[in-house]
Amino acid sequence: MGPTHSCRRALAIPGDVNDFEGLAQLVEKTMDEFGRLDMVINNAGGSRSKPILRTRAEELEHSFRFNVTAPFELVRLAAPHMLAAGEGSVVNISSVAAKNAVRGNLTHGVTKASLDALTRLMAAELAPKIRVNAVLPGAIETDALRGWLGKMDPNIRETMLSNTPMRRNGESEDIADAVLYLCSPAASFVTGQLLRVDGMAADDLIPHQLPDL
Predict the structure, then answer these.
(1) End-to-end CA distance of the chain
(2) The Cα angle at residue 157 between residues 136 and 112, in degrees rounded to 5
(3) In this structure, is the dihedral angle defined by the CA atoms of residues 62, 68, 71 and 74, taken in order, positive or negative?
(4) How crowded is residue 60: how many other Cβ atoms within 10 Å of its Cβ?
(5) Across the chain, which distance is largest between two alpha carbons, in Å?
(6) How far apart are CA 157 and CA 10, in angstroms?
(7) Residue 194: in which H helix or E strand, if any?
(8) Which domains does the chain have, with CATH numbers?
(9) Would you call 136 helix, strand, or coil by DSSP?
(10) Other Cβ atoms closer than 10 A to 125
(11) Mean pLDDT by 10 residues, the chain (213 residues)
């Protein structure tokens, strides 16, 4: 006999996490379809950082909404359903930028650091029924990173690899596996943690390009 495959159902709901009414509808439709809500993965986010004197307040505020306020709102909406079920797991996708002070990375670094603080504060308040953790990716071979490296001097990639003890950049599967662990029973006693998945890369992975002011 061949392998037995269990049936799985998926529900795709297009939307924008910055649309808070849409987040409410997302949670409502999920509950209508599946009858329960077990986990929330806050994966949407990002920033376009610039040097501090070229950054405007409205740009920082937009990044806060995308990287901090939207994840908070989705958890706020989902948490009552997980509490009612007696268990749940939240994983926020942060960044090593939250820990590293790199020139020209103010917007991304500030908002991801705020997401890390949000993670630990939510973990403290939602325990013991809901666990809340964060994954902090390093250099991951996404289309965006490959496109950027393709425009740079080839020595940049070599510098990144030489500054990473694992001698490679990460793959999307590395992040997915970390999330899977944090959501699984194997991590039942893990909450409030900020898990770096970066191959132990140096903080200054590549030389900064900004001169002294």
Answers:
(1) 70
(2) 20
(3) negative
(4) 16
(5) 70
(6) 37
(7) strand 194-197
(8) 20-197 (3.40.50.720)
(9) strand
(10) 10
(11) 65 94 96 96 91 95 97 98 98 95 91 98 98 97 92 92 96 98 98 98 83 89
